[in-house]
Amino acid sequence: MAGKKQFDVATALDAAMIQFWRAGYADTSVDDLSRATGLNRSSIYSSLGDKDTLFTRCLERYTTRYGDQYDAALSCAADRPLAAARAFFDVTLERIADPGLPDGCLVAQTVMATPALSASVAARARESIGLQHTRLRAALKAGRLHDEAAESFATHLAAVNQSLAVMSRAGASTEQLHAIVDVTLAALAHTLDASKRTPSPRGPGQLGEVSRQHSGRPA
Prior knowledge:
- By secondary structure, the chain is an all-alpha fold.
- The protein is built from 10 helices and no strands.
- The protein has helices at residues 9-23, 30-37, 41-48, 51-73, 81-97, 106-112, 119-142, 147-169, 174-197, 204-215.
- Residues 200-219 have low confidence and may be disordered.
């Protein structure tokens, strides 16, 4: 049909996303994107936008795709907060284990490359990181952790989740990544149990004490 696009936009965006994910924003050229998508430069600019616009679209696509999976994993937090946290990490571990995907996390590596980004792209990457903390905090509060504990553990779980992606790029084994998650979940389980016994709020110092007691490390 006259005027009909001869390519699928979703497929092209996925190909561009993988290219940015694998090489990073700074080390991906428009020629790289052309090879990855099978589109010439003029088609990229006219249909997908310039490099910044295309990268933002890919970042949005990535954030939405995995954000939806994280939300689904955390949906049982009100009844089973520990199982929800494990399911949350499973989303990341399964993505890392997928041989068809690059190592690491597009959002994490984008934040680390902030000096090479435009202000708008850097802001969008920081917003994506913040969304992870927000969803974790809401899930932990639904699981009946009080505000301070939910805030502290949301920060901790989000940081651990990003570290899994970074460590996978550095060559950490599957066993090592699972061990990190297990230690984190054990600390969360201890705090959830303590929260059931002691409804009064704990401050950040008390949360640290709980983690040290569980790990066996001296204060």
